[in-house]
Amino acid sequence: MQFIDHATICVKAGDGGDGIVAFRREKYVPAGGPSGGNGGRGGSVILVATEQLQTLLDFRYLRLFKAQDGERGGPKGMTGASADDLIIQVPCGTTVYDAETDECLGDLTSAGQILKVAQGGKGGLGNQHFLSNSNRAPEHALPGLPGEERQLRLELKLLAEVGLIGLPNAGKSTLISVLSAAKPKIADYPFTTLVPNLGVVRRETGDGTVFADIPGLIEGAHRGAGLGHDFLRHIERTRLLIHLVDLTAEDPIADWRTIQAELKAYGRGLSDRPQILALNKIDAVLDEDLSFWQAEFQALTTVPLLCISSADRRGLEALLRLVWQWLDELDAAAELSETRVLN
């Protein structure tokens, strides 16, 4: 399945049906008067979040979505039928923007959440509504109002609590494949991973947490270099970041600085997101080199630091324990904040 995380579409709500001009023509009703009915309401366009979709691929090939128009009114005061609303399913995690004004219209993060993006037009009034003492036989009716039309920009941001970040070949895909049932493509060359990979990591209690492997972060990613500009948005929803640094790289500290600079340059609070620093591939370095890099990084940052190896699974239990601890603390802090607001 091709992963598409942004799309631009046009939505057009249905027009309201026209009111009509009609008069009663019944045998035993003298001077029957006006009886033109109102037009029906046009259908609105509504987005609904669903867990059955994981990509915006469908919107790459179908760009125009139009709801049906309402029917015109009928004689004998009959109102025209209103059109059904047009329901469009989008993946959970879709943010909807007005493409012309850049206004954020809504953020669909949970299954079943709905967002009306175009209002259907009201039906026009029939001539029966214009009856008065001074006008006993009105011969005009109103047309239906047009439905709203909008250009929308859809952006999909993955719903994952933990994001794995690092330069290409830092070992993110290998780590998520070991911790979860995800089966990403893994190879020993940069940019093996071209799309974000999601994996559910289970606790001992049985409940799971979604991890996301964010690909393509290199220097200049926030400006569009590499793949990072397309995928940095997926980190926005994460609550905790695991920054993997490859200890077999030429300069691990420079690699760490590069990613930290990109998070800060991108903004949106990413550089302030809680982080765990994981020094990866310790199976491929000497013990004295490992001690050296530990000391160097501890002097650079105050975030929790762990040494791991996805290849032989060293340090992974300690990493997960720290992840669960962090997430539990974040949950407790969120509950406390919500309690204070309610009080």
From TrEMBL:
Its Enzyme Commission number(s) read 3.6.5.-
Q: Which EC class does it fall in?
A: hydrolase
Q: Name the Gene Ontology molecular function terms of this record.
A: GTP binding; GTPase activity; magnesium ion binding
| Occurrences of domain OBG-type G (ranges) | 160-328
Which cofactor does this sequence's record say it needs? Answer: Mg(2+)
> An example Gene Ontology cellular component term from the record?
cytoplasm
Residue stretches making up the Obg domain: 1-159
Q: Could you tell me which InterPro entries the record lists for this protein?
A: G_OBG (IPR031167), GTP-bd (IPR006073), GTP-bd_Obg/CgtA (IPR014100), GTP1-OBG_CS (IPR006074), GTP1_OBG_dom (IPR006169), GTP1_OBG_dom_sf (IPR036726), OBG_GTPase (IPR045086), P-loop_NTPase (IPR027417)
Q: Which GO terms describe its biological process?
A: ribosome biogenesis
Residues binding GTP, per UniProt: 166-173, 191-195, 213-216, 280-283, 309-311
Query: What is the protein's major site of localization?
Result: cytoplasm
Record has Signal as a keyword: no
Can you say where in the cell this protein is located? Cytoplasm
Presence of the UniProt keyword Transferase in the record: no
Q: Which UniProt keywords apply?
A: Cytoplasm, GTP-binding, Hydrolase, Magnesium, Metal-binding, Nucleotide-binding
Query: Where does the chain bind Mg(2+)?
Result: S173, T193
Q: Which domain of life is it from?
A: Bacteria
Subunit details: Monomer.
Q: Which family would the database say this protein is a member of?
A: Belongs to the TRAFAC class OBG-HflX-like GTPase superfamily. OBG GTPase family.
Protein purpose: An essential GTPase which binds GTP, GDP and possibly (p)ppGpp with moderate affinity, with high nucleotide exchange rates and a fairly low GTP hydrolysis rate. Plays a role in control of the cell cycle, stress response, ribosome biogenesis and in those bacteria that undergo differentiation, in morphogenesis control.
**Protein's recorded name:** GTPase Obg
What species was this sequence derived from?
Synechococcus elongatus PCC 11802
